[in-house]
Every structure is written in C-alpha cells, then in structure tokens.
Amino acid sequence: MNFVWSRAAAMARKEWFHIRRDPFTMSLALVMPLVMVVIYGVAIDFNVKNVKLAVSDSDQTQASRRLIDTFSSSGYFRVRRDFSPGQALDDLVAERARAALIIPPQFEKNLWSGRTAEAQVLLDGADNSTVVPVSQYVNTIQTLASERIAGADMRPPYDLRTRFLFNPELNSRWFIIPGVVVVIMAILSIFLTAMTVAREWENGSMELLLSTPVEPIEIIVGKALPYASLGALAVVFVYIIARAAFGVPFRGHLWVFGLGCLIFLLTYLAQGLFISIASKQQTLAMQLSMLTGMMPSVILSGFVFPIASMPKFFWYFTMLLPARWFMVISRHCFLEGSSFLELAVPFAALSLSCLAMTALAAHKFKRTLE
Amino acid sequence: MSEPISISVAGVKKSFRAFQALHGVSAEFEAGRMHGIIGPEGSGKTTLLRIVLGLMRPDEGSISYREGGRDISFADLRPKISYMPQTQSLYPDLSVDEHLEFFRDLYGIAPPDYKRKREELLEVARLAEFVRRPAGQLSGGMYKKLGLICALLRSPRVMILDEPTTGVDPISRRELWTLLYRLLDEHILILATTAYMDEAERCSKVHLFEAGLLLASGEPRTLLQEQKARSFDELFLRRAALGGP
To answer: Is B85 in contact with A18 (Cβ distance < 8 A)?
Structure first.
C-alpha cells in the first residue's frame, strides 16, 4: 500500500480546523469529561449513609438503649423515635424511614434470663440498591451490640475478621472513577469519529476527496490523529481530577496505564470510523455509536454492574468488548498497582480488538461512491 | 511534455435498482478538446462522469484510457486527473487559502510551484481579496470558482467538471469559461457537463444526452445543421414536445 505521510497530515490539519471551529465537538471533548467525573464522582455514591431508621422501643431498658445507641453511633443510621411498632411500620410504608427497628417488651429480661433476646429489623425490600448494604450494616451492628450489651464474656467462639484489600474503606469513588475514565474515553472517541466520515459523505466532499490521490488509509489515519490527541487530553484531565479532587490512589505504572489508554483509544476511534464509513449518515452514525459504543461500555463493561453475576451468555459476550478489558486495566493500574505482565490477558484481548476494528474500517472504506 | 490523454467509453450500461441511468453509451473523448456533455437533468451525465472517474463501476461495457496512443490503466491516470463535482463539495468552515493549502498537500505540489500557481489562479478567478473568507460565506459564483481553482492547482492532464456553471450569475459564468479556455492551450482533455444549452456552443465537441442515451456527438455547428435546429435550446425543446426519444 502506498502511504504518504504528508497527505495524512493534510487530512489531520483540515480535521483540526473543523474541530476548532465546531462548538459541539469542542464542548463534547472538554465539558463532557468534567461533567461525567462530577456526576459519577460526587452525585453517585454507593456508600449508603444516613439511612432513616424508625425505632420503636417497647422495652425502655438499659439494654434496649444500648442497642439503639449502637445503631445511631455507627454513622450509617439516623434514628427516628416512634411510640409503637405500628407507628414504625407506618413510617416504613410511608417512606419516612428505610428501615425499622422494633424492640419488644421483655428484651432485657430475656437477655439476662438466658433466653434469646429478640428484636426485629424491617427493611424496605423494594429498594434493591440500599437493602444489600443496609443488611450488611445490620449484621455488623448486631455483633457490635451484643458485645456492648453483654460484655466481653459473650464473645463468639470464633473471630472472623474481614479486611478489604486495595480499597480498605470500600470507598465507591475509588471504584467508580477509574471506570469513568473508560466510559469517557469510549464515548468521546466513538462519537467524534463516527460523525466525521459521515459528515464528508453528507456534505458531498467525499466525492471530491475520492477523486484526489489521497488513499483511504491516509484519510483514516488523518482523521483519527486529532481525535486521538483530544482523547489523550481528556484522559490527562480526568486523571488529574481523580487524583487531586477525589484522592483516588494510583498504585500502578503510568506507562502501563498510558499504553492501555492508547490501544483503547485507537480501538474505539477505529470503531467510530467503521460506523461512519458504513452508515454514511450522521444521524445513523450517532445512533449506532450509542448502541455499540456507549451502552456496552456503561452496562456490560463491569463499570457498575458486575460481570461475574451476569448470565453465561452475557458473560462470554463481554469478552468481545474492548471496554471490558480496559476496565480491568484501568482499575488494576489505579488500585492494585498491577504490572504489565499481570495484565497480559486484558492487553492481548484489547490489542486484538484494536487490530480487528482497524482492519474492518480500512476494508470497508471503498474508493467508490457505491 | 506529457503526451495527450484520450478516453473512450464503449457500451456502458448502469442501473440504480429499478432505474436505468445509462442504456449502453459509447463515446470518444479526444485529447486537447473541450467536450460538452449536454442534456436535460436526469439524462445520465453525472453517472457517466463518475464511471469515467472510477467512482462507480459500469454494469456492462468498458472505459479505456490512452496516453499518446498507448493504453494506460485508471491507476496510472489517477494522478493526472482533476474533478469538480456538481454537488457542493468544499468545506464551509475552511477559508479559500485553507482549501488551497489542503489540496496542495493532497496533490503533493512543491512550494515554489504552489506559490506561482496560487497567485496565478487567484488572479484569474478574481478571488485574491477573499483568501481569508470561509467557503460557506462565498457567493455561488465564487464558490464554484474556488472549486475550479482547487482542481486546477495541480496542472491536470484531464479535467472533469460536473455542471460547473449551475447556479452561477452570467458574469461569473463567463469567467469560469475563460478559466477553462486557458487550459485548452495546455492541450488537456476537458469534459464538462452542462444543462445550459447556450454553453454547448462554447465546446469544440458536444455529446447530446437524453434519458441515458447518447443521441449524437460532433462539432456544435455541424450537429445543429444535421438536426435542422438554430440552437440547442430549440433542439431539446422540440424533442421534449415530441415526447422524448
């Protein structure tokens, strides 16, 4: 193949003029990463706090007060006093509370007489996103409360200690922001390039371009270059925000992360170009990039929904998605400090999809109008 | 000095789904002449040009390219051919100068040649004072002239123009034709389509198209005498009144 750099550079330069003069492209490239990081980093918090707990204490003893104290001092619950179990239930139903703690009379008496003292916790099961973490808190508090109420001699015969490696506080931002990097890059690269070739078809300039000596591969490279730089810029931007504003640790090697970013960027740029070449229309290209680029990278990449719990078919299907592999690379680089060798599998898979996409885009690019 | 290039088309047919655009067209386009492809809208002119340019493949028939009597392939010809499409094909946000620089790089023109060419073309097209204006803000005539000078930047041996004067005011039309005549001095092959019948008489050879068929080819005066018409306008109007071919 006959590849002339000056022609690819001319394409890149022309594309850069379009980028500079198009407010939509510029704002997508600069504002979108900022908005996404802020939304995911600040607004979305999987660490459930301040759960409203309706408490009905029919025992009114030292033991029952200690139990309630344990809940309120945990920081996860905000206690709301009720006079009867029925009222606590009403609060739950009317959504004035997300959980209810009902302590029956005789709670302390049963405790000291050696029988099992029972108290009831009711959770709003309709809200799936909070019920799981809240029930975990309840378990922890139960252990804590029984120690505090009964004293040291009531310790269970074994001691199961859980420590969370890499993200000891289970800070959801540490988990989310390295994933946001993936989503931002995916959206940015695929949307920007998906529009560019289709735009040439729509405004008629493709016919003229195809009659010049420029080769399809030069058009592809020339178009990808400026958007690759924009994507790289967005990564640096998000990286700085992640480290400076959200205190996300970066324990890996920057070059491993950078290499992953580059391959991922090229893959999605190629996918965007492929969509653009195949669709030849901007509106169609927009919809296709939404469907094949944005949705899978948010839903099926393991960004928020765990891949491990997907049905078998989808579990295998995610293997085809570059975003799934880059998600692994990004999180490992930020939180675990993995080496390149430890990430060999995701890197191999990512490179393979990059090659496949580029080949597909170059193959689809015909030098004819048909 | 490069050898003159000529193109011949033999029995070319082309359909788009149910619509047949060309019904077996054969024509000779000899070097060093201005060939006018004349016919009403929808007569297959653009399709023929696109096939000649390799932008479309014919369903049947063949196109051969010759350089000084020797057959050459389209790949050999590609670096020597310039095209100006009928549809708007420039970038509205790029200025006149940015267009010229873009095509300079695509055609790989050396800086001294470019400098000379640029000045000469801007002068002839009278666009010199608008070099910084974006193409989207040029008038119809200036826009067409910009398209033409972009195509002429690289001294083509074959120049293909699809309706270069459509939507252009009479003065700009005359300027465009002047630009084209200058090229003939360099002995290049020009193929231009037009729906303006008066422009047919400016060509040294005309090819009359109607409904995907080549009706006749020849020198304009001779053709009109054969058809017993005073002008091409009259010729086509008469045919239209008869209900087509």
So the answer is: no
Residue pLDDT, tens place only, A315-368: 899 898 999 999 999 999 998 888 899 999 999 999 999 999 988 988 888 777
Identify which of B54, B89, B92 has the shortest CB distance to residue A208: B89
Which pTM value belongs to this model?
A: 0.78
- Do residues A304 and A242 share a domain? yes
Do A190 and A251 belong together in one domain? Answer: yes
Please indicate, yes or no, if residue A166 is contained in any of the structural domains: no
Say yes or no for a CB contact (<8 Å) between B55 and A9.
no
Domain that holds residue A326: 5-44+171-369
Is B106 in Cβ contact with A7 (below 8 Å)?
A: yes
A293: in domain: yes
DSSP A78-139: EEEEESSHHHHHHHHHTTS-SEEEEE-TTHHHHHHTTSPP--EEEE-TT-HHHHHHHHHHHH
**CB count, 10 Å around CB of B96?**
27
The interface pTM score, or ipTM, of the predicted complex is 0.85
**Residues A346, A206 share a domain:** yes
Split into its structural domains, chain A has a count of: 2
Report mean pLDDT in 10-residue bins for chain B, 245 residues. Answer: 84 90 91 88 90 91 90 88 88 94 93 92 88 92 88 87 84 82 81 84 89 89 86 83 65
- A57 and A92 inside one domain: yes
Residues of chain B with C-beta less than 8 angstroms from the C-beta of A19: none
Domain check: are A141 and A254 in the same one?
no
* Minimal-distance CA residue of chain A relative to B161: A208
- Find residues 66-105 of chain B whose CB sits inside 8 Å of chain A: 78-79, 81-85, 87-94, 98, 101-103, 105
In a shared domain, residues A200 and A69: no
B3 closest CA partner among B86, B94, B67, B70: B67
